[in-house]
Amino acid sequence: MAQVQRARPQVMKITDAAAARVAELMARGEGVGLRVGVKNGGCAGMEYTMEWAKEQGKFDEVVEDKGAKILIDPKAIMFLIGTEMDFQSSALKSGFVFNNPNQISACGCGESVQLKAAETTQ
After folding, report:
1. Residue 120 falls within a domain, yes or no?
2. Does 122 reside within a domain?
């Protein structure tokens, strides 16, 4: 009996606003894409990281949508599955926002979060 392979879910979705902002910044020639990850730190335990990638890593998960290219650090994939990346702008601040179903809690300042690894189904 042949083994059936399931399609891999997209790790992260990008809203129109986030894609437009990333594409706008990419047009400046900053790098090959925006690398997103997580690291230990902050009062809630983890922080999202973002930096311009000079090159695509061998194990980076790539999300390309609406002219934007996001490279997801392989160590962060299990914490970011199902996340929606948005860009919000107001009179007081603007920036990327992560709507993450794996988030358990966040600190009061909004800079760090507590994340759990996404549950996988067999």
Report:
1. no
2. no
Residue 99 CB neighbour total at 10 angstroms: 12
Q: Which domain holds residue 108?
A: 12-115
Residues 51-81, buried b or exposed e (16+ Cβ, 10 A)?
eebeeeeeebbebebeebbbbbbeebbbbbb
Judge if pTM exceeds 0.70: yes
Amino acid symbol at 47: E
Closest CA to 12 of 78, 58, 111: 78
Q: Which residues of the chain have pLDDT under 70?
A: 1-9, 108-114, 116, 120-122
- CATH number assigned to the domain comprising residue 72: 2.60.300.12
Q: At residue 60, what is the residue type?
A: D
DSSP code string of 64-108: EETTEEEEE-GGGHHHHTTEEEEEEE-SS-EEEEEE-TTEEEE-T
